[in-house]
Design a protein that fits this description.
Helices cover 7% and strands 37% of the residues. The protein has three helices and 24 strands.
């Protein structure tokens, strides 16, 4: 009999800030943790069609800590020059404290130090070995090898930490070891690689040289991220279902998280300054009973404030806390595992 996995909800971090800088998130897409326990968050800022130059710095990396002190930001927003982004997706730290960030529009991996200073970047557009088209997820193993999801080429590429090509695997399709627009990736402590095979609605596991090991399926709808804890449990951002699912290595479903968000520290501080808004919030129906025609995962999450809405990334920190990044509600929910 499969035992259930219960996670304790801890807190919510975040408040919407679609402005050009400062405290808050604008469509956060990923999170990473430095060795001194600072939290780095990609603000992708899914801009309107009529993007204005003054919106550029809304695309940024924000830095904070678990106590929700906002420590600063870096990244120069909308552009193709050193340290700039157009459509940042994911990030990870190596063992030397360098932060690697993918940009699916610029087809680059950009590297910063932990102070936010630009170091170098690499990436040539194309489908040849070492070339990339729409880099999405990124993960770095314990030997500082860098694994990049080459989204539009439907493959995984492995590089050294200075961007030298090592190997690649995968091709378009739905068979074992094939992909259809993969998105997220995770390298575990044992050296195995897990890939969120987005359009194939599954997770695939490989060795670090690309040999196929396993497929995990559980009625996923566009899974976007996967992370594995020290005991081998898989935590999967089921983006299209607006849930997080927890599976064991046998593929059994242990738990499903819908989200339990409460007001963040930042949101409470905002309401303290605007008591009329707080009174209006108290009168609002934040957990409505929806008519049957709106009983879809998207509609339920869009209209039920505590629920995940657009859970795009899952990560685990050094204190065994699970972070669920919600791109559509501009916040992060934290659970103890």
């Amino acid at each position: 009999m499969t035992s259930l996995k219960k996670l304790e909800y801890l807190k919510t971090i975040g408040i919407v800030n679609i402005g050009t800088n400062g405290l808050g998130f604008s469509n956060p897409y990923d999170i990473a943790f430095s060795s001194d326990n600072r939290i780095f968050v990609i603000n992708r800022h899914d801009a309107p069609i009529n993007f204005k130059p003054e919106d550029a710095s809304a695309i940024r990396v924000g830095v904070l800590n678990y106590e929700e002190e906002y420590l600063g930001e870096f990244g120069n927003g909308f552009g193709e020059n050193d340290g700039q982004f157009r459509l940042p997706v994911a990030m990870d730290f190596d063992s030397k404290g360098k932060l690697y960030i993918t940009d699916e529009f610029n087809n680059k991996v950009t590297v910063f130090n932990s102070s936010g200073d630009f170091l170098f970047s690499w990436g040539d557009y194309g489908d040849g070995l070492g070339e990339i088209d729409g880099p999405a997820g990124i993960s770095i193993d314990h030997e500082d090898n860098v694994y990049v999801v080459d989204q539009n080429n439907h493959r995984i590429q492995k590089f050294t930490n200075d961007g030298q090509f090592i190997l690649s695997w995968g091709a378009f399709g739905c068979g074992k070891g094939e992909f259809n627009m993969p998105w997220g990736i995770f390298a575990d402590l044992q050296g195995d690689i897990y890939v969120a095979d987005w359009r194939n609605n599954r997770i695939q596991e490989f060795t670090n040289t690309g040999e196929f090991k396993a497929i995990y399926e559980n009625d996923f709808n566009r899974p976007s991220s996967v992370v594995v804890d020290e005991s081998g449990l898989l935590y999967i951002a089921d983006w299209g279902n607006h849930k997080v699912k927890i599976l064991n290595k046998s593929g059994n479903l242990l738990s499903v998280l819908d989200g339990q968000a409460t007001l963040s520290k930042w949101a409470k501080e905002w309401y303290d300054k605007l008591p009329d808004q707080l009174e209006a919030r108290k009168k609002a129906n934040l957990v409505p009973e929806l008519p049957s025609q709106f009983n879809t995962p998207y509609q339920k999450s869009a209209q039920t404030e505590p629920y995940f809405w657009g859970p795009v990334s899952v990560k685990i920190d050094s204190e065994n806390r699970l972070y669920v990044v919600e791109s559509l509600r501009h916040r992060i929910q934290v659970f103890s595992i």
